[in-house]
Amino acid sequence: MSSFAPTVHGLSDIYGADVDAQAVRYARLAATFKATFGSQPEFIARAPGRVNIIGEHIDYCGFPVFPMAIAPDTLVAARANRSDLIRVSNMDGAKYPPREFSVADMFEIDPTKHEWSNYFKCGYRGVLDHVSRQGSKGFDALLDGTVPAGGGLSSSAAFVCATQLAVQRIEGLSLTQAELASAAAQAERHVGVNAGGMDQAVSIMGQQDSALFIEFHPTLKATPVRLPEADPPFAFVIANTLVVSNKHTTAPTNYNLRVVETRIGALMLAKHLGIAERVACANADPLTFKVVMDEYFAKPNVGDSNDDEVQGWIERLEIMLRETEKAFGTHPQGYTRDEMAAALSVATAELSAKIHENQFPVCTDRFKLLQRAQHAFSEALRVVKFRQVCESGDTSDECFVALGALMNQSQDSCRDLFECSCPELDEVCKLARKAGSFGSRLTGAGWGGCSVHLVPANKVDDVKKALADQYYATYFSDLSTERLSEALFATKPGRGACYYFA
Ligand code: NG1
Ligand code: MG
Prior knowledge:
Elements: H1 19-37, E1 43-54, E2 66-80, E3 85-90, E4 99-102, H2 117-130, E5 139-145, H3 155-170, H4 177-188, H5 198-205, E6 211-215, E7 221-225, E8 234-240, H6 247-250, H7 255-272, H8 276-282, H9 289-297, H10 307-328, H11 337-343, H12 348-354, H13 369-390, H14 397-416, H15 423-434, E9 439-442, E10 450-456, H16 460-475, H17 481-487, E11 488-491, E12 498-500
Parallel strand pairs: 3-5
Antiparallel strand pairs: 1-2, 1-12, 2-5, 3-4, 6-7, 8-10, 8-11, 9-10
The protein binds 2-acetamido-2-deoxy-1-O-phosphono-alpha-D-galactopyranose and magnesium ion (MG).
């Protein structure tokens, strides 16, 4: 892959963004930088948030996902300052007060502290860890973010990726897109979340007008896929439930627990399939459902838009779904730690080490391996089918009915099998479908945050009105018009990360 050369884009290139508002924003950022640090920034690095159209909680299972980059983003204006100090400020200084570190302290991150600059340090460390180097230069940075925090649109990935772009330029490094994406995914683990790599990959590699089919295994690969062009065209409406789910405080019972359930599920499924030794030799760390599937069929990865290869995915995933039922069907109530340890013939303490509990503790009595595995394999199947419909050349209403149905099934699976929805997300999906959405589902980690809806352009206003009147007016009656427009908006695929120069 080519190295990630800095690119210069005009402001009008930010698809879907309000160009005038963006121009004002960049000018304000540069002016505030000058007022704060005494000179103009050298450059502005930008990385967008994302919305995941389909493929939830399966990036860390090694399966493909289908997100797109959006207009809301993080900007980092920066300039080297010829000292060994790193000074970082935020346009929202009331919420995120200025911080100052010496270059030598930048690798210290305390994940138990809720501190905004931790994400800045993550981005800093991500790049330098990747090249096994210490930082060498002081610099000043001013950040501005428009991705709502904790809303499921990946504010953290936008933040970390934009910081990485700034740091690599200051340090004179040039990582490839894939390296930046992987480094950012690794880096977020320093704040205590055992994250997958979807958000960072799409933030870096996003393409205007296309969603991305992102594969993680055996290597990171992003294929742009266009949504079918229909008349009227289709848009994605994003609706934030405004239920804030903080991944860091809920990780032991939510996000990190799901990661662990899929990891133990992979180990036990391998044993059920009689390939425990084979996967041990494959040396996959961590072992994912995708690795188990590949080893079971011992065939090369398939992912290209060739009919037979798509058919191959579908057949394999269907077989894995049947095996899942056989492997875990006896325990619909879930497994205790002792039961899982016994099934894997290890001591309970050893099991705890296998799932890295000292780094990412989890808290539950029962691990629902059946339901989590059923979600993972069926969701992967839906992602592959979604791409297949997009590339079928069909632009009729039926094709959008099919895409919408896959999104609706994904929501049902997230609610019932993966248990990562919440009543507010379920309600928003129901209201939107009634008002004309073809497909509605949660997007991102869930348990709150955002939902995404596939809506024909001529129904966008109806869907927005239904949600404004029946959801927001009911539960958030004092919401200002401005906050409502941040929570509820239509969007299209936008471009990925880039640099701007004055
Ligand atoms: P968000 O919505 O950003 O919390 C998280 C993970 C993704 C993916 C989704 C679920 C991080 C940074 N991101 O997204 O990798 O697993 O949940 O599909 O943890
Ligand atoms: Mg995040």
